[in-house]
């Protein structure tokens, strides 16, 4: 089976709980049914499903994936005969993933990338903005706002049920206990006062990981 003459990049982006991983799994399974040679990669940071290195959707669908820590590992582990490369949770990887997926597409591969496009502050998350700019195909998915029922486009991080302040770390892996899908109007990122800021800094110095 010959590799296609021209490759391309597909990006499935959007808020948490919008079905990104489910859509990635759907495309991968269709590629497998079509007889394509497929490789799947997933950031090792996402251990929400018991440390198992699988691409998992929130509805329970799973498919095995190779864990990677950075873009170099993706490039080094793609087999010569691979026709389709899929990468889940791309927001956790470094900006070098953009050059890697470009090179794979130039080599004639179909590259499918899924990731959360904005962090809990509503700002571009990791390399996702650059990946969206380079893709031939983009699908941005929405969830349902848990407060008003409108289409949700933001990730609301929670601490003890309350919106997390902007000074929290960008990366904190979590599920329904730590995040909610919200619309623009219901999304809140409070700025802490001086006392709260000092407490956050103190907790950070002590290695506290609750934010």
Task: Explain this structure.
- The protein has 211 residues and is of the alpha/beta class.
- It folds into two domains: 8-142, Rossmann fold (3-Layer(aba) Sandwich); 151-203, 2-Layer Sandwich (Wheat Germ Agglutinin (Isolectin 2), domain 1).
- The protein has five helices and 13 strands.
- The protein has helices at 20-33, 71-77, 96-106, 128-134, 194-205; strands at 8-14, 38-43, 54-56, 62-64, 66-68, 84-88, 110-116, 137-141, 143-144, 151-152, 154-159, 162-163, 179-182.
- The strands form four sheets. Strands 5-2-6-7-1-8 form a six-stranded parallel β-sheet, sandwiched between helices. It has a three-stranded antiparallel β-sheet with strand order 12-11-13, with no helix packed on it. A two-stranded antiparallel sheet has the order 3-4.
- A hairpin with a 5-residue loop joins strand 3 and strand 4.
- It starts with 7 loop residues before the first strand and ends in a 6-residue tail after the last helix.
- Mean pLDDT is 84; it is low at 48-53 and 207-211.
What is the element layout, followed by pairings?
Blueprint: E1 8-14, H1 20-33, E2 38-43, E3 54-56, E4 62-64, E5 66-68, H2 71-77, E6 84-88, H3 96-106, E7 110-116, H4 128-134, E8 137-141, E9 143-144, E10 151-152, E11 154-159, E12 162-163, E13 179-182, H5 194-205
Parallel strand pairs: 1-7, 1-8, 2-5, 2-6, 6-7
Antiparallel strand pairs: 3-4, 9-10, 11-12, 11-13
Low-pLDDT runs of 5+ residues are: 48-53, 207-211
Strand fraction equals 25-35%
The computed structural class is alpha/beta
Indicate the CATH topology of the largest domain: Rossmann fold
Write down the overall mean pLDDT.
84
| Spatial strand sequence of the major β-sheet | 5-2-6-7-1-8
Number of continuous helical runs: 5
Q: What is the succession of H and E elements?
A: EHEEEEHEHEHEEEEEEH
Total count of strands: 13
Reported for the largest beta sheet, the result is: 6 strands, parallel
Portion of residues within helices: 10-25%
CATH superfamily of the largest domain: P-loop containing nucleotide triphosphate hydrolases
Rg, rounded, reads 18 Å
Highest CATH level, the class of the largest domain: Alpha Beta
Number of domains: 2
Give the terminus-to-terminus CA distance. Answer: 49 Å
The coarse overall form would be: elongated
């Amino acid at each position: 089976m010959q590799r296609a003459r021209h490759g391309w990049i597909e990006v499935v982006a959007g808020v948490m709980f919008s079905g990104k991983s489910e859509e990635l799994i759907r495309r991968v399974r269709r590629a497998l049914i079509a007889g394509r040679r497929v490789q799947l990669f997933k950031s090792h940071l996402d251990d929400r499903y018991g440390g198992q290195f699988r691409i998992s959707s929130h509805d329970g669908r799973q498919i095995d994936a190779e864990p990677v820590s950075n873009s170099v590992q993706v490039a080094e582990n793609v087999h010569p005969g691979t026709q389709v490369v899929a990468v889940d949770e791309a927001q956790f990887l470094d900006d070098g993933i953009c050059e890697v997926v470009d090179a794979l597409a130039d080599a004639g591969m179909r590259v499918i990338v899924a990731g959360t496009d904005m962090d809990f502050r509503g700002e571009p998350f990791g390399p996702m903005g650059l990946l969206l700019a380079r893709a031939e195909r983009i699908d941005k998915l929405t969830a349902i706002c848990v407060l008003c029922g409108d289409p949700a486009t933001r990730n609301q991080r929670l601490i003890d049920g309350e919106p997390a302040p902007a000074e929290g770390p960008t990366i904190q892996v979590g599920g329904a206990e730590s995040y909610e899908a919200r619309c623009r109007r219901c999304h809140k990122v409070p700025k802490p006062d001086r006392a709260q800021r000092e407490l956050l800094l103190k907790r950070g110095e002590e290695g506290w990981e609750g934010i």
